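Troubleshooting entry. Yesterday's outputs looked truncated, so today I'm pasting the complete records for two proteins to confirm everything comes through intact. If either block looks cut off, that's the bug. Protein one:
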Amino acid sequence: MKKAFGTTCLFCGKIAETKDHIPSKNLLEKPYPNNLLTIPSCDYCNKSFSLDEEYFLNVLVEISDNPTLLAKKNFGGNVHKARERSKGLKKRIEDSLIQGDDGKIYFQSETDRIKKVIEKNAFGLYFHKYQKVSRLESFKCVGFYPFSVEETRPTEMFLLTYTEKFKPKKWTTIQNDVFSYIVVRDWRRGNKLSMIFHIHNSVWCIIEIPYPSSTKSKTLKRLNQLTVFD
């Protein structure tokens, strides 16, 4: 990591007392991969994501049929422990289960909390991929698509992950069958960049990201982790 970023929180520009894992550790599985990615962060910014990251994992186990995720709800699993530790979290999850007009039970998640976690991880991966810092609010999650039970990924975005000869483009794998991502040019938006997450073979997340400029970023001091959405 470049020295210029070594002591500065990438989220707010203050002194970095700690490191934030990218992707969030609770989205990965033990044993963790070697050389986990981190970004410098102040203690406040690091902790500000913790509850949303815990909530995000709770959402994943409700919308996935992945056995690895479902096991986390069993006694002793980290999702089970989190719900026993926080009755408020447990109630929020229970209240999110709603009955649809077709009689089926659906999970209605808190969209803003989901987006906050996705955009934070895109922000960190962008830094590692391009060694550049952009404003956190420049990262816009525009899609969260569960597909383990029913295919919901938009066809046009799915096709962007293939070459013209319909061969799959290369994804960057953080952990096999757990977390991968890819950056693609979206012809629908004038070839602007989108980052796509593939998490636990359960969801696709699509994030619009800025194009890395050829000059060094001078916006570090203006980064504001509290202003995530327009």
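Protein two, checking that the full record survives here as well:
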Amino acid sequence: MLESKSKLYYSIKEVSEITDLKPYVLRYWETEFPSLKPIKNNAGNRTYKKHDIEVILDIKQLLYDKKFTIKGAVEELKNKSNKVETVETISSSQVNALKEIKNELKNILNVLNRH
């Protein structure tokens, strides 16, 4: 997808070439998709990060390949974002549970070593 030596920022022309989308499509999508917000430099030009390009490719897949409407694609991206947050929360609670188990096992080992 992106060149091996990833840059920090890409111009709209570069993103247009990478994603095979016209710049006016990218500008329009910014108005429709809250998750797509490239920053503008001091000259007012859009600068895209790698994450922005990944979001654009996700949007493109939803609209062009899976035939979602724009509204449907916005909802799908929100759901995807919520799923990621849920997985992180679950992982955090699992880590805490594992720490408790580890401490209990250490306590059991200490008791067994005393006898």
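Both blocks look complete. Sanity check on protein two: Strands lie at 39-40, 46-47.
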